[in-house]
Inverse folding.
């Protein structure tokens, strides 16, 4: 599902990723832990094609069989919208749109028919226990509900892989526990691959594999 070889990243003279190699199978839930500043977010952004590694010629990045290093900006934007889902610490829902509309947006960008997008979004929101919240705007939802809407949005195009950066970092422990269980339910139901950067030990340890990053390298 993901094959990354020799991923390097420099900011000026500072090397924040030092030749990272990573191989992730379809349906795996991977957690990435490590001290602040280790390079976890940078790695996730590069794997998710939101950022690019330094010196692409020396590295390889395959996502779902696609050599994303070699795509044009335009093709990459399309690939990202259609095949990758993102969940961030802060949900980044659009405040003026309802839950249902927020979930539909990536499907509209993909070109999915409105009725099909709404059907899919409604089904996902129901699976996430939010059938009674379709017409609510983000500020009318609890933190846990907002984050579940963000999860539905990440899933609406049936992405091959979901990248999550501190997805429960802003939630109380009960909402966090519910969100963590959800990732595994989704993997079991839809076969999704998850790559999750987290400081939450429980979530990190629930993963199929826990990777530790220290000073720009995966140490185990
Ligand atoms: P982590 O997610 O493990 O906390 P990050 O990937 O956020 O680590 O950051 C790794 C290192 O890269 C840190 O030293 C950080 O200060 C530096 N860094 C991150 N983004 C930038 C940037 N845009 N410009 C310069 N340095 C950056
Ligand atoms: P969750 O476990 O999903 O985070 P909570 O226990 O925090 O849910 O909230 C329960 C209910 O309280 C929610 O369904 C929501 O309607 C309401 N609620 C909680 N926080 C807020 C808020 N900040 N604004 C509006 N309603 C809220």
């Amino acid at each position: 599902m993901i094959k990354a070889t020799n991923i390097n990243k420099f900011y000026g003279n500072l090397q924040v990723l030092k030749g990272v190699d990573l191989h992730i199978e379809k349906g795996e839930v991977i957690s990435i832990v490590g001290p602040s500043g280790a390079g976890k977010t940078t790695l996730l952004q590069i794997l998710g094609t939101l950022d690019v590694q330094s010196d692409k010629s020396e590295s390889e990045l395959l996502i779902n069989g696609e050599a994303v290093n070699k795509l044009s900006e335009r093709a990459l934007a399309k690939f990202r919208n259609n095949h990758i889902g993102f969940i961030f610490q802060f949900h980044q829902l659009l405040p003026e749109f309802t839950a249902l509309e927020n979930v539909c947006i990536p499907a509209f960008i993909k070109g999915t028919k409105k009725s099909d997008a709404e059907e899919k979004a409604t089904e996902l929101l129901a699976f996430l226990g939010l059938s009674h919240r379709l017409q609510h705007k983000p500020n009318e939802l609890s933190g846990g509900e907002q984050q579940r809407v963000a999860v539905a949005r990440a899933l609406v195009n049936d992405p091959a892989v979901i990248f999550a950066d501190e997805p429960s970092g802003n939630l109380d422990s009960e909402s966090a526990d519910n969100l963590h269980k959800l990732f595994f339910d989704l993997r079991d139901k839809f076969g999704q691959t998850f790559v999750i950067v987290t400081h939450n030990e429980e979530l990190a340890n629930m993963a199929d594999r826990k990777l530790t990053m220290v000073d720009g390298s995966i140490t185990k």
